[in-house]
Amino acid sequence: MIQPTSLLEKLQIEFDGHSYGDAPVELYEPITYIMSLGGKRFRPLLTLLAASIFDTDIKKALKPAMAVEVFHNFTLMHDDIMDRAPLRRGMPTVHEKWDANTAILSGDVMLIRAYDLLLDVAQDKLRAVLNRFNQTAAEVCEGQQLDMNFETRWDVTEEEYIGMIRLKTSVLLGFALELGGMIAGADEETTKLLYSAGENMGIGFQLKDDLLDVYGDPAKFGKQVGGDIIANKKTFLLIEALSKAEGSLKTELDHWISLETFDNAEKVAAVTGIYDALGIRTFTEHKINEYFSRGMASLQQLRTDSVQKEVLLQFVEQLVAREK
Amino acid sequence: MIQPTSLLEKLQIEFDGHSYGDAPVELYEPITYIMSLGGKRFRPLLTLLAASIFDTDIKKALKPAMAVEVFHNFTLMHDDIMDRAPLRRGMPTVHEKWDANTAILSGDVMLIRAYDLLLDVAQDKLRAVLNRFNQTAAEVCEGQQLDMNFETRWDVTEEEYIGMIRLKTSVLLGFALELGGMIAGADEETTKLLYSAGENMGIGFQLKDDLLDVYGDPAKFGKQVGGDIIANKKTFLLIEALSKAEGSLKTELDHWISLETFDNAEKVAAVTGIYDALGIRTFTEHKINEYFSRGMASLQQLRTDSVQKEVLLQFVEQLVAREK
């Protein structure tokens, strides 16, 4: 049996020994920097875990798994410019530590380096893998564009929101799992199940992020509880509240949203109160469970006797249970 | 015999019928916009001309050739943000017409779409083509970084400058030619000659750009003659002048460079006078001829009986003779 911790170690050794390029240093230093900020690396882990179900030699999945993580960090580097984010994992973002030009150009090279890592895939699978990666990568950009579009809209529907997070977050989790299957020689029915699992779990994870921002345990959450409420961020909870609120609740919600100056704690308490009154918490929890169940069901359906299927299921269950 | 005009027509039909994506429109409209601004499309033409020497069926080179042009326009979109350029081919740049975020994200998708187009290459050549493309693409980014680094340095050597323009401009011309050869099944010796031809010609083209900015015929040049002098742009001519000037010429050159306010015509006349006194024009012309000769020599060495070799040679000679 290959445990996630063992795969994570292998992955870390591979990352530590990997060079993204040397000169000019101004171009490559920011890449080493963002990759060194860590993160849970759970996308490449999903690739390795999926591969381990169908082929115990996970070496051939290592570099493609890294490609997924490098691509993910490329999107973070560029998204942080667009979102004017000052911090990433508690450290200055690349465009803050250096400047926007650096973050644009280093990000571009990261995307190219992700393709480099994907070229490690065997000849007979290369075109199929790249086809799926290209589609996924373009969809992630489409999701980011929709996310930015939604910032100035107040009529975003639940369906539109789910569609956006599917593109921005979920398709890459789907691809991470699918990629593992493809590399290990799984058949098409299987890789489709893997993709569908990641796609549904990903939507669940994002909805859970939205939920924890409001209802997370401050001791465990790591971030400021209510940050999304303070920033009027269009989360699943706010979108539901906007569509469900009527009468005085609607007036109250509109009031808090339109205020330009306010006491943070007061706004968080008031909007949370509105969510409570509308039953948004329970509604969101049901949605999350719905997507997680769909994802787990796809994994359960995988036809294999491999003990690694259990390892993947347990790993995903842990992710589902997380509270930060 | 297949003439460049006929290849250009085929290319235009392919571009006209090509979709980069539909939704969200905010993401894809800027791509259609920048691709519609035109340009001479001479990079994809080089690919098609090189391919036509070794395989008269140029259809299989069309999409890969487009990839080169889409990649080139991706670099323009991102470079224009970094350089704060207001205009591109006489029209507003994407970050001016929309905003920087749009130019970042649409550029990212263009890079992905370039890879999509490259996937049209036959299975047995795909890895080699992508390997070479990845290297070229990263080098172009390295060249842009060096170009930005040079903006704040006054001790850039001739060697460093040539190294920078090689990366920023030439390697893509080299790859454009090499790609045509690879797709058409040319052997490695041949594809190396094609690459070397593009690499050397590219350096020649950039040096000629630098020269024409100062010594171009205003009636033919299209841009303001002396624009680089006015902006203190570190061209080949300025770098040579800075290294060659002594005594009163050095004092005079330093004076004009350090002035914050000046009469444009006066500065252009004065700096041109210094270039004249230092023999910079002749020196630069010799360099240009040196690189063009090397490039043409590589093309001459191509071992083939194909009449298309002559067509490529003539096309390149036209490019060399251009005065704008």
UniProtKB/TrEMBL annotation, chains A, B:
Keyword annotations of the record: Magnesium, Metal-binding, Transferase
Repressor among keywords: no
Database matches in Gene3D superfamilies: Farnesyl Diphosphate Synthase
InterPro entries: Isoprenoid_synthase_dom_sf, Polyprenyl_synt, Polyprenyl_synt_CS
Cofactor(s) the protein needs: Mg(2+)
UniProt superkingdom: Bacteria
GO molecular function, one term: prenyltransferase activity
SUPFAM superfamilies found in the cross-reference section: Terpenoid synthases (SSF48576)
Keyword Cell wall biogenesis/degradation on entry: no
GO biological process, any: isoprenoid biosynthetic process
Protein family according to the UniProt entry: Belongs to the FPP/GGPP synthase family.
Protein name: Geranylgeranyl diphosphate synthase type II
